[in-house]
Amino acid sequence: MFKDQTVKLGICPIGWTNDDMPELGSWNTFEQCVSEMALAGYEGTEVGNKYPKDRQELKKALELRQMQIASAWFSSFLTTLPFKETEEAFIKHRDFLYEMGAKVIVVSEQGRSIQKEDVPLFEAKPHFTEEEWELLAEGLNLLGELAHEKGMEIVFHHHMGTGVQTKEEIDKLMNITDEDKVSLLFDTGHLYLSGEDPLEVLKLHLPRIKHVHLKDVRGDVAAQVRQQKTAFLDGVKEGMFTVPGNGDIEFGPIFETLANFDYRGWVLVEAEQDPAKANPLEQAIIARNYIRETAKI
What we know:
- It is a single chain.
- With 297 residues, the protein is of the alpha/beta class.
- The protein has one domain (7-295): Divalent-metal-dependent TIM barrel enzymes (TIM Barrel, Alpha-Beta Barrel), CATH 3.20.20.150.
- 41% of the residues lie in helices and 16% in strands.
- The chain has eleven helices and eleven strands.
- It has a seven-stranded parallel β-sheet with strand order 1-11-8-7-6-5-4. Strands 2-3 form a two-stranded parallel sheet. Strands 9-10 form a two-stranded antiparallel sheet.
- Helix 5 (167-176) links the parallel strand 6 and strand 7 (182-187).
- It is globular.
- The termini are close together.
């Protein structure tokens, strides 16, 4: 389906240890995490909080397992804090990823985000004012310029519980930002959970998509989260997310669309789950087998 050597398959560490809820998987070490990733057949990973901060130590650990760094999450606060504060943190983050060989930088706007708050996920979702949209667009364009200084790209991560969650909001952000400076991360799970059609968004924004997160959703749990007005992190603990092939999303057309467009870059399995309930290695293998069968990767 995909041309040889055009797509790299990775997996995120959030299934082993959740950075927002360290108690989930607190017993899983960095070494166990990346070893099981490699054992399950993945060639890359994004960076988690347990990963060594020393570049040489991290490089050695990954090289021993024939693994690479695809990217890492960066929280921007362009709508709520002076740009200078985000800029300084971004440059440090950018330089670390550059030295690790990454080509893209995942950016998520956390101004007024409710991801970590104990409030209803759907009812309490923030909505940006026009002034906040302008601050976000201007700030992202500047971050894109900073990324270009190292030959890198920023990929914006639309996310549940933030001001850029829905198709309408993604469309608006793509329209008001410079296409040469701001690219898009396509996350199947966040779109599906938000009530959007991931395939529709994918087809609409293909030229801007330069990073992919493959996340599945358990529809029955998601419906319960909405009905009971559950907070985002509680929904994670209850199991609303899972790996591809283990939920309700049909990934075949998504893979076909990416392949027909000749997508080049990383696709990463990312599923926030409680590792005490969903064994990370077992889940990684389930996803790997499903992707091999469905996408021929």
